[in-house]
Amino acid sequence: MAGFYPRPPTQRLHFDRLAALPLRRTAVSAPILKTRTRLSEVRYEIRGELARRARELEAAGRSLIKLNIGNPGAFGFRAPAHLQQAVAGNIAQADPYTHQQGLPAAREAIAAFHRTRGTPNASPERVFVGNGVSELIDLSLRALLDPGDEVLLPSPDYPLWSAATILNDGVPVYYGCRPDHGFLPDPDEIEAKLTARTRAIVLINPNNPTGASYPRALLERIVAIAARNGLLLMADEIYDSILYDGAPFQPLAPLAGDVPCLSLGGLSKVHRACGWRIGWAVLSGDPVATGGFHHAMDLLGALRLCANVPGQFAIGAALHGEDTIAPLCAPGGRLHEARRAVIESVAASGHLELVAPAAALYAFPRVVGAAAEGFDDHAFALELLDSEGVLVVPGSSFNVTWRDHFRVTLLPEPDVLREVFARIDRVLARRAATAAGARRRGAVA
Fold first, then answer.
1. What pTM did the predictor assign?
2. 354: pLDDT strictly greater than 60
3. Phi and psi for 52 in degrees, rounded to 5?
4. Which of 181, 299, 315, 431 has its CA 20 to 30 A from that of 38?
């Protein structure tokens, strides 16, 4: 069926492993607990089978370089001092629950920030604070979907979007963002995949895993599709200020105008505070058209009481205080130089090519040439982990049909990334030599 991409069998490995564990027998054997059937459709290899293998190797004394998660604190980054001070200075006020949509002052700070961007109808009443963007993705899809409703998702996507769609009884339908098109979506393909069950178009911009940043004209065409078809736009903009070499960022809500749009952001990436679990969603568009959805989001937020309170005190300082991310992304800054190390390492390799990331915290290289013959991204990632001590994420984990990419994070020091790509090249050189040997044997036969 168009729009549905096959999932490799590796997604079931951890279920099979759990099923194989010996059961402790008691006097009365209890029935085996049944789990939700649709979990078999969910995959999250970023923390999946390969990550479990990495823990086994570390338990055995191996030292690994783990590039599977965009977690700044794990690579020596800290949340800015003025954010830490904002939390510490208000900790005495953080004990009670707050309003289900978030602290009033925090929501006003978010709304004010969005007003500077031109977001229509940006007010505290239309802001929802959550335990990270991840929770808000789940809540928003739960508020939107009836069983069988479809959500248009980019391929590659951040797999939480697919998982949350499936677990809220929706159907993910993928539109391609291909490397030969700079990983940008094709609006014509998006429109061709609409059906009577389509409810939303998801945009991840700047993009994880590819690092693409979408131009205004492209976004305007997608807004027009949503307007013609009465769809909700869902803009995951968590990397909105992580930009390199003059790459622009165009927020979606100002272009959407009266078209319903949910814009998601947070403290985890730009402000390097992943563990604080603070994200937000801003609902824009015609208030009448979005009223029911607003009520549903408020109800679901109330059922979980409220988001983490201490971290909310940092929101105003983050959005209206010192810009601490731009220096890291500028030439000479750590993220810029890490990105440079990846770009130069790929250019020096005979086995890789790369669409240089314009934004975000990742690179998404492609294996080419003899090393790509018979290439399987999961098998490669496992060999790289076992033989070279480097953990990456197979590209197919991001819901693509092709199996020749992998994702690395740009968070390590530049010299560490150069060493990583030297190890990657060793594995790929062995694969290329094996492929060449097979061709020679075939020619002789």
1. 0.90
2. yes
3. -65, -40
4. 299
